[in-house]
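Fold this sequence, please.
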Amino acid sequence: MNNGKKNILVVDNDADITGLIKQGLEYLYPSEYHVICVNCGKKCFELLEKNSTLPDIILLDISMPDMNGWDVLDYLKRNPKWRYIPIVFISGESDKTAKYFGKIFGVDFVEKPFEIKNLKVLLEEILER
């Protein structure tokens, strides 16, 4: 991952969303963020296992085909190396249950679609904690 920049791992099967986040954060804030995107839970774990530097935050989609975000979160929390990485759920599921559990089990919940500038504000708040 990258020197001096905050490392953001995005786990979402929607290439439009991962592209928006990567291009938005790295283009608007090139000295602040390094964004790595994977499209499923399995690739998330593979990436975490092979990298010695952990991400500062994981943005995690709830609805993915191979393994949903809740399952990915459960697996992350079982690993002592990964359990303290802040998780922000990102989802098009706007029902109250998803938002409620997203904020309980993660550090926050972001509903798709969202503005990159608003996401940056949230990331800064989480990173300051």
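Residues 6-128 form a domain with the Rossmann fold fold (CATH 3.40.50.2300). The first helix runs from residue 15 to 28.
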